[in-house]
Amino acid sequence: MRPLAAALAGLILAACGGPIAELPKAAVPAGSGIAIKAEAVPLNPADPTQDRVGDLVYAGGLQLTSDQTSRLHGLSDLDVRPDGSLIAVGDEGDLLRARVVLDAQGRLAGVADARLSALTGLDGKPLQGKDNADSEGLALLPNGDLLISFERRDRIWLYPVAGGPPRAVPSPDAKFPYNQGMEALAPDPLLGPDAYFAGGETTGRTWSCTLTTPCAEGPTVPLAVGFGLVAARRLPEGRTAWLLRAFNPVTRSVIDLRITDQAGRIVDQQELRGPLTVDNFEGLAAVPAKDGSIRFYLISDDNFSSSQRTLLLAFDWKPPSGR
Question: Where are the alpha helices (H) located in 127-261, listed in sequence order?
């Protein structure tokens, strides 16, 4: 495979879960408080005046690092509540809880009150090994319970808001390609407070589930060549936001944020690629505002790689009239 094939394989694995130039890892005690350094990044480093991509208005972006832990990496999905509380999952079994900080104009300015802990297994002990701990999707239910989907050993677990070990919940009855499983996981509030849906990365297949009923297959998200489904969130008025990602050594990461209506028709679709500030975005949060707009937060998985970054970007989107 050397030299070109191996190099290409390494670059592709960097975007899909196989780290290159790995950073050192160390355990973090459960619930450890950490200080996060948040460095502002422009939407377009080549043109700092650019403030939007189509209908997406840039509301600030940050590169996140911490000198207190080597575990602030691999963040694969997140949720942000209207009060600013943030929860994110890392794909080596880490859970981050924090609070987003906004400036006087409502733009993303920082991350505070951060605590990092290890996800536990059914036995209550921290997950061990990449195959067991590859947590990718996150769904925060209305009562505070947290659902997390895993790749490699494909499953969905519920972590109770009151604490204690997780338990297995209904998961799609499907065989996923190794390391290409349920990247997308989200609550499905229109179907009930215990409803959620999952999506397969490379196939775009989706399933609707509840805590007490088996998962039923739903519509398939169309994927262009090279793109995978990595996150999704339901929006008001029956809309859904889908986060799609592609990677190749020439264009690097290319991100497609697609919004569809209840019938699956595309309402809006915007692409993020270089020279814009783009990395391996895998996580998506959607926060509705009183004026009808949606604040999207995108987070990138740096694969514990020194050649990638942990980025948190914010965009405001207002539904086009008549769509």
Answer: 130-133
The answer regarding whether domain 4-317 maps to CATH 2.40.50 reads no
59 neighbors 254 (Cβ within 8 angstroms): no
Q: Are 258 and 229 in contact (CB under 8 A)?
A: no
Long-range contacts of 290-297 (CB under 8 A, 24+ apart): 291/318, 292/236, 292/318, 292/319, 293/317, 293/318, 293/319, 294/235, 294/236, 294/241, 294/318, 294/319, 295/59, 295/80, 296/56, 296/241, 296/257, 297/78, 297/80, 297/86, 297/100, 297/108
CA distance 207 to 44: 36
Which residue's entry shows tokens 């209908």?
Answer: 55
Q: What is the pLDDT of residue 17?
A: 43
pTM, whole model, 2 decimals?
Answer: 0.90
Residue 251 has a pLDDT of 81
Three-state SS at 92: coil
CA distances from 29 to 98, 123, 251 (A): 16, 17, 39
User: Who contacts 184 (Cβ-Cβ below 8 Å, separation ≥6)?
Assistant: 137, 197, 198, 199, 200, 201, 206, 229, 230, 231, 232, 242, 243
| DSSP E strand stretches across 54-131 | 56-65, 75-80, 85-90, 94-102, 108-118
Q: Which two tokens stand for residue 28?
A: 């973090």
Ranges of residues in the chain with a pLDDT under 50 are 1-30
